[in-house]
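pasting Peptidyl-prolyl cis-trans isomerase for the record, 123 residues
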Amino acid sequence: MTETPKTKPEIDAPEGPAPTELEIIDLVEGTGEEALASSTVDVHYLGVEFDSGEEFDSSWSRGESINFPLRALIQGWQVGIPGMKVGGRRKLVVPPAQAYGTSGGHPLSGKTLIFVIDLQGVS
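structre below
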């Protein structure tokens, strides 16, 4: 996996079973302002399915970062981003219950997801 927050990350295929709990792994420690649960975050991110390794979403592919209020995002991001500092890169492995649910109408329901997130700003 590349560890440079200026370039699109590459996610290696995971080994073993998908985790049942949220995994939070700092790949690059940021030195800027810290994200809080109440923050709006400016992020670049890549999302892939745990089982297939298929990319399902990427701000990198769109060529621009995205601003989100954390409270409007999936639970895995609401729990996994606070404490992260601007300039950092963090990997989240999000089980279905903290992503899009275990079953239902969303195409990603029932799937464990891997995100690599570069925090570029908080407000």
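The first helix runs from residue 59 to 62.
Helices lie at 59-62, 75-80.
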